[in-house]
Amino acid sequence: MHVETVIRGGLIATAEATYKAEIAGTDGVSLALGVAGVKTASLPLMYTGAAGMAFGAGIVHFAHGDYKDGGISIGLHVGAPMLTTLFVMRVFKPCAEGAEGCVAAPVIAALAGWLAADLTDVFWLTRDDAPAATPHLLSFGGSF
């Protein structure tokens, strides 16, 4: 468990460092952007939501210096929706029932996989051994 010492009003307090809310917030905003894109038929909103759903939580892990869990998070957020969609399409064969089932089933399966990845991320990857309470500044540089 990572504990941060904070001085407030001359008193020393300890605060458990976790960023579960940041992960959940990032994924919630990404989902909202994706839904807004579908409702308004806006491809940029749909793409932004999908990119956030795939990479947002991993970027939060990276910003907190937790690179291993960031990679696992991206793998979960990309892999779980693909696997659930493949499973539903292969086992239940919704396209045999007509075009409506062929469109709805993979979308629902992908969202179920993403939700499973998100819950795994929030409740397992951001467990109490979070390495940092505040994000690090990520910068890339070079010289010419």
Summed up, what is this model?
65% of the residues lie in helices and 8% in strands.
Walk me through what this model shows.
Helix 2 packs across helix 3 and helix 3 runs antiparallel to helix 4. The termini are far apart. With 144 residues, the protein is mainly α. The mean pLDDT is 82. The longest helix is centred in the C-terminal third of the chain and has 27 residues. It has a two-stranded antiparallel sheet. It has one domain. The chain contains four helices and two strands; from the N terminus they run E-E-H-H-H-H. The chain is globular and about 55 Å long.
Name some characteristics of this structure:
2 strands; two-stranded antiparallel ribbon; single chain; mainly alpha; 144 residues
Rg estimate, integer Å: 19 Å
Number of helices: 4
What portion of the residues fall into strands of 2 or more residues?
5-15%
Helix share bin: 55-70%
User: By helix and strand content, what is the structural category?
Assistant: mainly alpha
Please report the distance between the alpha carbons of the first and last residues: 43 Å
Coarse shape: globular
Query: What order do the SSEs take from the amino end to the carboxyl end, as H and E?
Result: EEHHHH
Number of domains: 1
What characterizes the major β-sheet?
2 strands, antiparallel
